[in-house]
From TrEMBL:
Similarity-based family: Belongs to the Ca(2+):cation antiporter (CaCA) (TC 2.A.19) family. Cation/proton exchanger (CAX) subfamily.
Cellular localisation: Vacuole membrane
Gene source species: Gossypium stocksii
Xref: InterPro entries: CaH_exchang, CAX-like, NaCa_Exmemb, NCX_ion-bd_dom_sf
One Gene Ontology cellular component annotation held by this UniProt entry: plant-type vacuole membrane
Name of this chain's protein: Vacuolar cation/proton exchanger
Any single Pfam family the record assigns to this protein: Na_Ca_ex
Every Sodium/calcium exchanger membrane region domain range: 97-253, 284-425
UniProt xrefs under Gene3D superfamilies: NCX, central ion-binding region (1.20.1420.30)
Parts of the chain that traverse the membrane: 62-87, 93-110, 131-150, 162-185, 197-216, 236-255, 276-298, 318-341, 353-374, 380-401, 408-428
Length: 451
């Protein structure tokens, strides 16, 4: 028995070939998201012969899994940042160092979570596997947002989620179109507009839900307090956004999955990669462990962001909107650009638009609902500058993608739009919202739906 097959057999028991075939059939009947395909470009194959000569069976199994999970990515060089961040916190180093090391440590963890959810999907069947891959693509941003919510740092929460949307729509998509256009000057670059139209519609729906609380605040008569009504409107809108996202998942995984199944044209090319390399329980255990580490580093990031802002002389808004999304999603972004180089724009668009849609229609309203449960006044009012930036970004992207073709000039426009927004938040020192002032003064929100 070959070493790889032996490790699989040890963990899962029974006939290895039968279970492998079953897992692959389930996967082929499901859907592999563009985010997973993007992250897979940064993975590298390990050699099971390196641990096959060890004497103890359990030790061989553990080291084989360790080799696949830790050393199976080209970003493994960043893993030392994790213990360094923990050590920096334990020995009370500069808080800006804790922030920087934690941010670097989150980069490989985000890619590994994608890998582990993909491994679990081999064993759970197409529906559960597709649901895992469709909802865990932005787990890192969601965990950071929930910790910011727990600490009542609503401004950090809103900035980080907004930054993730802007980064995906302008930086990732723009870089992909630019690099793909330059690498394929003599080829006509085309993509399927159906997927882009679905995501654009959902982004516009999310934008409407963001604008309504803002417009109601500006439309109120002078001296009229509308904080409670704005909060109620935000919570009602968030429930509608989550319903729309559930419909999007059903649309993506069941009724119209052929639109999103971007791996059909590359099925033969990637057939060797579509095999489980670790067992279900190992993948589940590693996923739980890495989620806990992400939670720890996210707490470091949220707790030290103001110290990093003061030390570096950069506003919290710029760090949250620009730096955190760029570093946190570096693996996924690099994969999207590589696929654009290969003239596979459908996958690149799936990464950028899919991630932006997931943040806008799932992460943001989920934080509002969780804040409702925790009695934290989280709403959808992102203030005028942030909402206007989001609105103009969605409109620019929608116009850019309307004809189904691409060239490098479209990428230049999107990248310059992102640069202009980054410059705006770099020079504009945005104060914390009023609800943060209330939290600091110890004012308690009212209970019930009007809280």
């Amino acid at each position: 028995m070959e070493p790889a097959a032996e490790f699989y057999h040890m963990e899962n028991g029974g006939d290895q070939s039968k279970k492998a075939a079953m897992g692959k059939d389930s996967w082929n009947n499901g859907i592999r998201t563009a985010q997973n395909m993007s992250n897979s470009l940064l993975r590298k194959k390990s050699d099971p012969l390196l641990v096959s000569k060890l004497r103890f069976q359990m030790l061989r199994q553990f080291l084989a899994n360790l080799q696949e999970v830790i050393l199976g990515t080209k970003l493994a060089v960043l893993f030392p940042a994790i213990p360094l961040a923990i050590a920096a916190d334990f020995y009370k180093f500069g808080r800006h160092w804790i922030f920087a090391l934690s941010l670097l440590g989150l980069t490989p963890l985000a890619e590994r979570v994608s890998f582990l959810t993909e491994q679990i999907a081999y064993y759970t069947g197409p529906t559960v596997g597709g649901l895992l891959n469709a909802t865990c693509g932005n787990a890192t941003e969601l965990i950071i947002a929930l910790f910011a919510l727990y600490r009542s740092k609503i401004h950090v929460l809103k900035y980080s989620l907004l930054g993730s949307i802007l980064s995906n729509l302008l930086l990732v998509l723009g870089s992909s179109l630019l690099c793909g256009g330059l690498a394929n000057l003599k080829k006509e670059q085309r993509y399927d507009r159906k997927q882009a139209d679905v995501n654009s519609s959902l982004l516009l729906l999310g934008l409407l839900c963001h604008m309504l609380p803002l417009m109601s605040r500006y439309a109120a008569a002078p001296g009229v307090l509308i904080a409670d009504s704005t909060l109620q409107l935000s919570r009602a809108s968030s429930i509608l956004m989550l319903v729309a996202y559930i419909g999007y998942i059903i649309f993506q995984l069941k009724t119209h999955r052929q639109i999103f199944d971007s791996r059909q044209e590359d099925e033969e090319e990637e057939e060797e990669e579509e095999k489980a390399v670790i067992g279900f329980w190992s993948a589940f255990s590693w996923l739980v462990g890495m989620t806990l580490i992400i939670a720890l580093l996210s707490e470091y990031v949220v707790g030290t962001i103001e110290a990093a802002s003061e030390s570096w002389g950069i506003s919290v808004s710029f760090i949250s909107i620009i730096l955190i999304p760029i570093v946190g999603n570096a693996a996924e972004h690099a994969g999207a650009i590589i696929f654009a180089f290969k003239n596979k724009l459908d996958i690149s668009l799936g990464v950028a638009l899919g991630s932006a849609t997931q943040i806008s229609m799932f992460a943001v309203p989920l934080c509002v609902v969780v804040g409702w449960i925790m009695r934290v006044r989280m709403d959808l009012d992102f203030s005028l500058l942030e909402t206007a930036s989001l609105a103009l970004t969605i409109l620019v992207v929608a116009f850019t993608l309307q004809d189904g073709t691409s060239h490098y000039m479209k990428g230049i426009v999107l990248c310059l739009c992102y640069t202009a927004i980054a410059a705006c938040f770099f020079v504009h020192k945005i104060p914390a919202p009023l609800d943060q002032t209330n939290v600091k003064l110890g004012l308690k929100p009212s209970t019930g739906i009007s809280a």
